[in-house]
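Quick one - inputs below.
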Amino acid sequence: MSGARGFSIAGLALAVSLSTSALAVEPTERLNDPAMEARARAISAEIRCVVCQNQSIDDSNAEIARDMRVAIRDRLKSGDDDRQVVAFLRARYGDYVLLKPPFDTRTWLMWLGGPLALALAGAALWLRAWRAPAPTTVTPELTDDERARLDAILRDGGGRP
Amino acid sequence: MSNRWLFALPLLMLVIMAGFFGYALTHGARDPADIGAPLVGKVAPVIDLAPLREDGKRLATADWRGHVVVVNFFASWCAPCQVEHPLLLRLSREGVRVQGVNYRNKPDEAKAWLARLGDPYERVGVDPDGKAGVEFGVSGVPETLVIDKAGIVRLHLRRPLTPDDAFARIAPLVKELSK
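Output:
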């Protein structure tokens, strides 16, 4: 019972995950040259759809995403290299179309913020550990009275039964 | 000593985060859905489109040289296009050269739409598959650009025009660039 349901949910998840990537790129869009088509797919996966916030144009069914996929293939066919194709889209839609924002003066804090915070926290911890007095096992001195009692115990071999 | 500092840390983090949120909420320019206008300051992309009307002329970037033009992407299926349409008619009547790109539209429907609402366009080119749209970095209709005599894009509005857009921005800009 629960096994069958688990199986059907897995099947559904698989179907959904397959359909989103398989449906977006229509057969008519594909290039005949498999190597060039693979380049087009790789570029498309990094280009953000301009009307769907956080989906690549490779995944999106939006018409504008289709237009941009076709534009990428047109550029490749006319002899552009991958960098030129991305530059073409970036010139028209800006950094908005890059799923991975470039590293520049506006984005350095975003890229370095995480590692920077980690390094700061690590440095603070290390400094604290280094500056704190080393934990020593404190052995308090015996008083004369205690010493005399201890000597007596050692001499008598215990003193108690 | 330093342990007491740790109690203030969550509060400090809250203050920092509240600062970020407050900034993001009160500074309207920080709209995450805003694509911006990267074409502004660059040479207008080259298009050469077939005319919408049988007796019309092709709509080509090359023909705009020496003129200040307003390029408007529109479609008859686009409701906001109908809303901004009277503003384009007024701009056209005031002597602004408005060029139309009929975006992903059936020609018959576009012609009927223009016949019904009036035609502000000097020329209308057809863009049935959105290729000219991608060339101009259009993400949807309506969008409007102003291109100067030298063919440089001076303004790109990704929204239906408001009266302020038309008469406080576009009209004065066209006047200024036409000098």
